[in-house]
Write a structure and sequence with these properties.
The chain is mainly alpha-helical. It is 78% helix and 0% strand. The protein contains 6 helices and no strands. α4 crosses α5.
Length: 116
Amino acid sequence: MAVFGFFFWMINARLYSAEQVGIGTTLISIITLISSFSLLSIGNGLIRYLPTSERKNKKINCKPIIRIELLLLAVCFIVVGFFQLVKYVPSVKEALILATTVKPETSTELYFENHL
């Protein structure tokens, strides 16, 4: 597996700038750190508390936890994607600024803005 990682970064270093490779490396490191924290003592907790549980034969259901994690991950992707879109695509940034700062130019627009 390490060989694939080596070739992956070698190809990325040729295709992308140093800044983009650095951002990618940072994101992968952060994701690895978060996943390490999420697994913190779950296995040890099951080993310690499951034998003494009153319901030890009942199936452990992880579906709600997985659904919440997927929802949070989707929200994070949407938020980060939106900010990256605004940052790197100038037309989106200009459209967002225009949409939030345009003032009415005619009396009709002013009337409807105040009465709707």
